[in-house]
Every structure is written in C-alpha cells, then in structure tokens.
Amino acid sequence: MRHLMSPLDFSVGELNEIMNLANDIEAHPDKYAHACDGKKLATLFYEPSTRTRLSFEAAMMNLGGNVLGFSSADSSSAAKGESVSDTIRIVSCYSDICAMRHPKEGAPMVAAAKSSIPVINAGDGGHQHPTQTLTDLLTIRSLKGRLENLTIGLCGDLKFGRTVHSLINALVRYENIKFVLISPDELRIPDYIREDVLEANHVDYVQVERLEDAMADLDLLYMTRVQKERFFNEEDYVRMKDFYILDKNKMDLAGPDMLVLHPLPRVNEISVEVDDDPRAVYFKQAQYGVYIRMALILTLLEVKVC
Amino acid sequence: MLNVGALNEGFVLDHIEAGKSMSIYHYLGLDKLDCCVAIIKNARSNKMGKKDIIKVECPIDMLDLNILGFIDHNITVNIIQDGHIVDKKALTLPKEITNVIKCKNPRCITSIEQGLDHVFVLTDPKKEVYRCKYCEEKYKGRK
Predict the structure, then answer these.
(1) Which residue of A134, A140, B38, B44 shows the fewest CB atoms closer than 10 Å?
(2) In this structure, are strands B84-89 and B76-81 parallel, antiparallel, or unpaired?
(3) Interface pTM (ipTM) of the complex?
(4) Which residues form the Aspartate/ornithine carbamoyltransferase carbamoyl-P binding domain (chain A) (predicted)?
C-alpha cells in the first residue's frame, strides 16, 4: 500500500505513468466511469478548501465511487480533541482511500503511519501540496507536450508559496529546465530552495524584479497570489499584494506559445481581461486537477481498467 | 593532577568540547541512573586546549551512545571492562534521532498531537543538517 505525501514520492517514471493514465481518462472518460464502483473516498478537511476538496470529490464521483467526510475541523471529532492518529484508524474502517488537508505540517504523515488505507496529502499548512504539483506537471506536459527544455517564470510570492517550492522540486528532475524567479526583494525564493535544490542540481536560474523584463523569454509563466495569512503585519501585505498585475499589455510582450498558469484562487495578480487570451490556461489547469486526482486514486487503489 | 578512580566496567567519554559535559550528562539520561558518574570539566588537552571528560561506571549495554554522534561525533568513547579499555567506539552521525530534541515549528503536527515521537532525520550528512520527519523544519541547535 502506498501513500502520497510529497510529489517526490513518485519517481519520474511513475509520474509519467500516472500522467499517461490521466490523459487516457481525459480522452476516454466513459471507460473509467465505473472503475471505483462501491469504493469510498474520505475527504478529511480540517481547514476550508474549495478547489482541492471539490476536485477530489468530483474525481471519485467520475470514477463511480462515493465520498464521505468533513470540510472543517469544527464539524469533526477534532473539535472534541481527537488525535489525527485516532481519527484515521476510525476512518480506515469506513472508507477505501482518504484525502487529508490539515493546518499542521506533517499531519497526513502521522495519519499514513496509522492508516490501513492509502492517504493522500491534500495540503498540510505551508509544507506540501503534492496534488497541486501533479496538476501543474500534467497541465504543462499536456499543453506544452513536454516537461524538458522549458524556461519557466515563477512570479509573485516565491518566499511563502508552497506550490512554487514544490513545483521547483519536481521540475529540477527534468532536463534543461531554466527558471526566471520574478519577485520583489522581500518575497524572494528562500535560501534553502536556491542552494539545496537549484544550485545543488546545477539548474540555471535568474532572479528579476520586473515582470516586463522576463516575459519575452518564457515558455511558461506561473503566477502566484500574495497570501495575506503569511504576513505578520497588514502594512507589508498591502505594499506587496498588488506588486504584480498581469494584464493585456504585459501579455503582449510574451511569445505566442507562452502559457500562463496559476494554482488559484487569484486576487488581483491576473487581470480578468487576460482570461480570454488563449494562452491563459489556469481554468484548464483546474480541469487537469480532476484528471490527475482520478489517475492518482486509481493508482493508489491499484484499480486496473482495460 | 586531578585523580579520579579507575573504572571496572563502564565508559570514559573523552575529548568532549569544554563546557558540553553537562548537556551530555542530561542527553544520556545519566541523571536518572543509579550509578557512579564523574564529570571532569576543563581538563588540559594537547589536542583541544581544554576538554571535558565523563566517566560512567555501569554495565556497557546500559547506555544508548548513538546520541553522542548527534551531539559531537568527535567525542572518543572508551569502553571499559575488567578495568581495561576493550574497545574505542567510533561515533557517526545517527541517521535518525527520536525524542532527543523537539521540533520548534509551531505549525508542526508534533505541537498538538499527543504521544507523537519527535523524530529528526539526517538529511545532509556533509552539512550535518537534521530536519523534523514531519514538517522538515531544520534543527537549528547544532553548532
């Protein structure tokens, strides 16, 4: 039995197989409509989430399975003081697979250690969010046709953004990846990612402050939201939150094949006028999130569809 | 010259960085053992200038010395039996340490989950970096 705690839990080869399966699901959804008949997914969400929880639930329903769970700690026995270890032992009796989001970092790992069903980390604080990374990889591979030979701009909050850290970790395993790290000084990528991941893997990168300076060179632009909850004072947040706004003028500086991704939700960092640009693929990205979660559920449940 | 009686069975922990003996005393749980312990602080050393030494009179299977590798792997561990040094144990950085240090990340699950071991894993032997098994926070207490 396998769990998913970090995107690096899967080798590049295994990830390719999961993405191949996701693409097959996209092409032939009917083939998979009853693959999980009679199986149950437990969504244990100790903090609110819209996209992640609904996309897990949609994924299981698309496979013919059922869903049970809770969407906040207040409506679970955690409010009565039950430990994660006890909760997962109980949930293991009720379901076949579980997706857990928890504000405390490492909570899904504690659950996995005590669980008798596969556990998927659906986000643990600022630590990991592996299914978002798998979604990003699938989106890039499906729409660009490759995960190698790419120049990728990462823009916004590169300091606290877990999706960015996770994506960098996953992408350095592919050939000839270059990063353009676009952020204000205060929100630059942490040293441990720069030194232990980028430099340790001899990956080319540059750090710039102006989005306009980078646009022409990019194959992909990954925008991120400046997250209010990461700031200790309102003043710093207000100063940073509108530092980057991707609008039509900036899009005009980019090549015709450049794609814009965003883990969503967005606030102001992408102007709505960009939404209709065919290069804006962040809503398609959300759709790929369902396909990859379907593929992941099938893989972890070891369900084969012929 | 200070003279501390020879051991019959036990350990002599030599080449401890001066001033660190008391923390080792606590890390090894020597305060909880009913055995004879001698702590020599600031002894003269040709190699180190000054050093600490701990002598422990106890059965040789009584102490888990792996933790010493985490604290300072330059410590020399002499194992004494029948009044003689029978072995010198080479210390290495342990791959994993449990319930010796605590994760200080307030967002870590160890901060709320009752009965959960605090486990740190050696992630970079060259830079001697330990990270919490759960949240991957780096332990900053090492020199």
Answers:
(1) B44
(2) antiparallel
(3) 0.86
(4) 2-141
